[in-house]
Structures are given as C-alpha cells and as structure tokens.
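Researcher: Re-running this chain for the archive, since the previous output was lost when a drive failed. Same request as before.
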Amino acid sequence: MNGRPCVMPPIVHPTKCCTQHHNFTTIVPHIHPSHTQHVNHHMYQHMHYYPHTESVANEVSNQHFNCGARPPGPGFGVRPPGPFMGR
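Model: Regenerated structure tokens:
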C-alpha cells in the first residue's frame, strides 16, 4: 500500500425538515352600506275607443262552355286508337 486513503461514495441521509412559523396580521374591512329608495307611483288610465269601419269585397267567378265541335288536329278531337275504338 502506498498510503493513499481510499474514498468511498457518500452516504446521503434523509433530509431533516425544520419548520419555522411566521404570523401575519391582515385587516379585513367590513362595509355595511345602507340605502334609501324613493318610489314614485304613476297611474295610467287606459281609455278604450271602438271605431268601426266598413268595406266591400267583390268576388268574381268564371265559367267556360264549349258550344261547338273541336277543331281538328293533334290533341283536338282526335282520339288515339284503343281497344274500344271498334276495330
């Protein structure tokens, strides 16, 4: 041996927790307000009137009558052949 010390890894112990208490004084103001309300009363008198008006409505109707033969041509008086046309 040459006389040099052998250094071991450190041993870490749990942390010792020390608690210090500090006291603070806080002033909390409490305000208690008061209020006076003035109430004004208003009366509304409702006057009801019933005016009357008249009006006239005219209704119109139309009727169409076919008083003669239909003009010849496609769609006018020509019936397409069918099973009941007497063939």
